[in-house]
Design a protein that fits this description.
Order of helices and strands: HEEE
Shape: flat
Distance between the termini: 43 Å
Number of strands: 3
Strand order of the largest sheet: 1-2-3
Radius of gyration: 18 Å
Number of helices: 1
Helix content: 25-40%
Number of domains: 1
Structural class: alpha+beta
Oligomer: single chain
Strand content: 35-45%
Length: about 70
Amino acid sequence: MRTEAQGQRDAIGQRWRMHTETSQPSLPEHELVATSTTVVYTNRWMSVRKDKTLRHDGAEGIYGLV
């Protein structure tokens, strides 16, 4: 007996296989590429970093990491 989660994983896997068979390799939709990194704050316990990013569709953005 298949669970709903197993069915969803199978459907995602099938869509991914169809995508990779019919198109050229590209970054997945959730993939970000950091184009620059800057530490904006630091102390003895933590640091805060700001990355300028580039999404798979060419849009620029920022990503913060504590």
